[in-house]
Amino acid sequence: MKRILLKNLHICTADKTIENGFIKIEDQKILEIGLVSNLENIDGFEVVEIPYRYVAVPGFIDVHIHGVNGADVMDATTEALNNMVSTLPGEGTTSFLATTITQSSSEIEKALLNARQYIENCQIEGQAEILGIHLEGPFVNTKMAGAQPKEHIIDPNLEVFKKWEAISNKHIKLVTLSPERPGGLDLIRYLKDQSIVASIGHSDATYNEVMDAIDAGANHVTHLFNQMKGLHHREPGVVGAAFLHNELKAELIVDGIHVRPEMVKLAYKQKGNSGIILITDAMRAKCLKNGKYNLGGQEVFVGEGKAVLEDGTLAGSILKLSQGIKNMLSYTGCTLHDVVQMASVNPAKQLNIFNRKGSIAIGKDADIVILNENMDIYMTYCRGKLAFHKEG
């Protein structure tokens, strides 16, 4: 049984910062936290001295990520998911939803089966944990396709979803769909009954149609502002509904490209730290050089910090969640506690796993990120095992 003591660090807990503190880890869980001045009983612990004033925050949870470092969920291979779970701790991501894209039914089913097998058989400590699957498409609106291949988009279909749910062995935890399309509200009602997050995205829904979706059980918005009906003074659209209704948690890609900084600030003023979930929506080119890549069977060109289709449409991002957090701090003037709320607490609560993830608290998984004075990732622990060390 591995026992670790992290010592001399500031600790960002749910309600305060402990200065010059310690964290004891035992058997993948947080055993004890407190002030170094009160530290006792350290026999049998591997002591890790942390540089002074470095800060421990809970591991980040990315509920919307397609790929990284050359790998993509739609590759439907063990190797691709191995790559993702090994690479993501370097940006502080300790758990995530493996996110699919609109494709043919057969390709989606391969990805679902592969993710299921990986979740059930391959998860180990010291790597980011796949919490489940985010099904993005194909139940979206062709008017708001973005980088979702139009030829494979279909209307929300409850029977098709139930088939995919069975293939995934109920590991689908979040579904992006367009509620205004035929069958949308029926699917949302079913998702609510199954405790699956129903997210409005790639949607041309009017404000009233979003109200119907909320009544049916929708409680999430996929990448706020991007590929949805925007804010207009006579038609508030999806964005207006997201601003006005606390029932909806809103994902935000804070790379300064998908949403310009002033709009990030506006969203933060409207939704507050409890209403936003920071995501990357990253594709396989993240961590790689500029060049030509593939997303959902389409050529994607990466350069100047962004990924686009041939016609210039944004195609996911190459954002690291650690950089998104830095950007959020810069764009809005929010605090470290605020970004922890948006990157760790809110996604854990939305996925109903706050009992074990999302904050540094006794009994929870030891998913811990240590930031240096520049807010860079210094160390990442995934379920109590070192997964990344900047100098290692």
Q: Identify low-pLDDT runs.
A: none
Quaternary structure classification: single chain
Task: Please give the alpha-carbon distance between the first and last residues.
Answer: 23 Å
Query: What's the alpha carbon Rg, rounded to whole Å?
Result: 20 Å
Number of domains: 2
- Shape, per Cα inertia axes: globular
Q: How many helices in DSSP terms?
A: 9
**SS-based class:** alpha/beta
Task: Please summarize the sheet with the most strands.
Answer: 8 strands, mixed
Order of helices and strands: EEEEEEEEHEHEHEHEHEHEHEEEEHHEEE
Strand content: 25-35%
The CATH top-level class label of the largest domain: Alpha Beta
CATH homologous superfamily grouping of the largest domain: Metal-dependent hydrolases
CATH 2nd-level architecture of the largest domain: Alpha-Beta Barrel
Helix fraction bin: 25-40%
Give the integer mean of the pLDDT values: 97
Number of strands: 21
